Amino acid sequence: MRLSQFFLPTLKETPTEAQIVSHRLMLRAGMVRQQAAGIYSWLPLGHRVLTKIAQIVREEQDRAGAQEILMPTIQPAELWRESGRYDDYGKEMLRITDRHEREMLYGPTNEEMVTEIARASFRSYRDLPKNLYHIQWKFRDEVRPRFGVMRGREFLMKDAYSFDVDAAGARHSYNRMFVAYLRTFARMGLKAIPMRADTGPIGGDLSHEFIILAETGESAVYVDSHFLDQNLLDLPVDYDDVAGLQAAVDRFTSFYAATDEKHDATAAAQLGERLLSARGIEVGHIFYFGTKYSAAMGLTLQGPSGDKVVPEMGSYGIGVSRLVGALIEASHDDNGIIWPASVAPFGCGIVNLRVGDAACDAMAGELYAKAKAAGLDPLYDDRTESAGAKFATMDLIGLPWQLVVGPRGAKAGTVEVKERKGGAKLEMSIEAALARLAGA
RNA sequence: CGGAGUGUAGCUCAGCCUGGUAGAGCACUUGGUUCGGGACCAAGGGGCCGGAGGUUCGAAUCCUCUCACUCCGACCA
Q1: How far is the CA of A207 from the C1' of B77 (A)?
Q2: pLDDT value for A260
Q3: How many distinct helices (H) and strands (E) make up chain A?
């Protein structure tokens, strides 16, 4: 993509309304525009990141055996009356009346709807287990939206819903998601720490929050620093191995990790030096809640011995749009964002310091063509801006690599390869630069 | 939902107290000079001062109401 043609409305100054760093940087980098309190439009740069995050989530859900569906944003109130949550949910639920005076709502979550789908289709215990997920916009009419996309009213979320014949099966479904979550976040360059959590209004008796550490995190967390040394990409991926998954879950839940409200100072103190006190951002939450919805909504199926079975359910959420902000909170510096390669909006930036200079244009053009051909997804800054402005833009938008072509290098036949993280710079040939990035 | 605050050019803000025909920097347009960390010179374009009502000869400025947004708190993926 040529930057001269790309829609990237960056801001030199920070809009007043943005307080935390991820919100400021997202506005400055032209990723999002606020349309109302807690409601955002996603511009090309932000949309690319959002899509990449969603794709990683999708791949890991699929790998763990979940199947993608897509449920609507607008739901009929009737469904929620069945579970009793229409009245329980309160003002957080955005209620809408259609032209026929039917009561509708903009879905804050989908347990009722997915249970209805299951009820309409599942007949026998042989239909289970199933895990259905979707990635969809949701709306919760927060009293006080803040922190940009991290606490918006409208947000993109992945939520999965598992159905099993019995508690043991449900436990396995839970463990699958548990491991899938560790892998998902690890692929984004994040260490997400599972912490035992309250089940809240969704109900149930087994629940973990996945929390990433960031200085600006919304809640205080306490964690065994040895957890951070674990290689999460090393996890088993045989999702049918019941004992193996349980062992993995047991291992990762054996580390001390607690949010403020669950913190046990006495137990934590035994860790001594290993106790890490930090702040965290919740990016995922998984629940096992048994038959809460299946029982309330009459989801039953034929069991193996002719009896009725009420399926055991769980639900598993990942805040996809929140992750965009969370990633920035976890990875930035004074100059801007530092994207992990797996979610970066472009693979690298190419900076032509002297547009109009024959040697620079030729070299940058060649580099751009070759980088594209190599699948490096380059963003080529071919604007006639000053060098400083171009460097500032590149640092701000945080692409993992910058390939700088200037008069100096053009004469010597080299480009400067700068790694955004750390800022290390090396002069090398075009071929060496491309090889360096391809190998990274 | 309680408390506090802000709405003036695309962005950051001044002007408001003490009413008198709307400003700066950045951004934008044109021309020129520059060119390795948000360049310089010159000339331009752009705002019914969030909205409604009121006071006044006259309102961005004073009064009333309203809408929006932000921050602190309680609450949440």
Answers
A1: 14
A2: 83
A3: 14, 23
Long-range CB contacts (< 8 A, 24+ apart) of A236-240?
A236/A179, A237/A63, A237/A183, A239/A63, A239/A64, A239/A65, A239/A176, A239/A179, A239/A180
Cis ω for the linkage preceding A340 (within 30 of 0): no
Tens-place pLDDT, residues A105-120: 999 999 999 999 999 9
Pairing state between β A130-139 and A154-164: antiparallel
Taking a C-beta distance cutoff of 8 angstroms, is the pair A184, A54 a contact?
Answer: no
Integer Cα distance of A233 and A372 in angstroms: 28
Domains and CATH numbers, chain A: 21-337 (3.30.930.10), 346-439 (3.40.50.800)
Nucleotide B10 C1' to residue A348 CA (A): 29
**Range A76-89 average pLDDT:** 92
Q: Which chain B positions have some atom within 7 A of a protein CB? A: 1-2, 6, 11-13, 25-27, 34-39, 68-77
| Of A107, A110, A210, A237, residue with least CA distance to A161 | A110
Does the pLDDT of residue A228 top 70, yes or no?
yes
- Beta strands (DSSP E) in A184-274 are 192-196, 206-213, 219-224, 257-259
